[in-house]
């Protein structure tokens, strides 16, 4: 498997569920990227929110969901808790022990930060460490404070691994039947803000807001947890249309 700097590119996926709560990792900054656009008009039936959605959920603060991203070079990890930016996991240490990846997570904000009393999915990213074979079963052993748990990632198909996209191309993976982890690229200080999620017969459209803000001119990977208004139908490839905030693209969520 490629090392962390080379990890973040392409499209893939798989999913699995586990027990604990919260993980994270900062990523690599590279080139220039812009910051604001006018988003396209939202589609009809939808839900909205950043790193979330208002679809059905039975999750607790002790849950963790995982999904392959970036053609098996990285993994999206979803934890549940406060939506406040200072109350999310922001750093992670990932080490390989054979086919097990041991992940230790810590808070990104001030320990005394005041957190909102809500429960939303928060997505973070880890690079797959050197030596892990993603064509075989991979186990995630995660620890976050007093919480720990284990998750199993499904084996990736060879065509997913062999056809990575270049750096800058988004990818997405299922973390449950209504949840998608989305990897996009842009300013590290201006993560995507989900304005609307609309289901269609074939897939879904995600519209991003374009708030007025000052952004650093780097190109970093950002992960966003998206909750659909209703479960997908079947296991066939699911097209996801991204629009607004310089994120316009069409990708398949595989899983």
Helix and strand layout, with pairings?
Blueprint: H1 4-7, E1 15-18, E2 46-47, E3 64-69, E4 74-81, E5 89-97, E6 100-107, E7 120-127, E8 138-144, E9 147-153, H2 158-162, E10 171-176, E11 179-186, E12 194-199, E13 204-208, E14 220-227, E15 238-243, E16 249-253
Parallel strand pairs: 6-8, 13-15
Antiparallel strand pairs: 1-3, 2-12, 3-4, 4-7, 5-6, 8-9, 10-11, 11-14, 12-13, 15-16
In short:
The chain is mainly β and 255 residues long. Helices cover 4% and strands 40% of the residues.
Mean pLDDT: 77
Q: Over the alpha carbons, how many angstroms does the gyration radius reach?
A: 17 Å
Molecular shape: globular
Helix content: under 10%
How many helices?
2
Low-confidence stretches: 1-50, 52-56
Q: How is the main sheet built?
A: 5 strands, mixed
Number of domains: 1
Write structural notes for this entry.
There is one protein chain. This protein is mainly β and 255 residues long. It has one domain. It contains two helices and 16 strands. The strands form four sheets. It has a five-stranded mixed sheet, with no helix packed on it. Mean pLDDT is 77; it is low at 1-50 and 52-56. Residues 39-48 have a biased composition (Low complexity). Residues 1-26 form the signal peptide.
What features would you highlight for this structure?
single chain, 255 residues, four-stranded antiparallel beta sheet, 40% strand, disordered N terminus
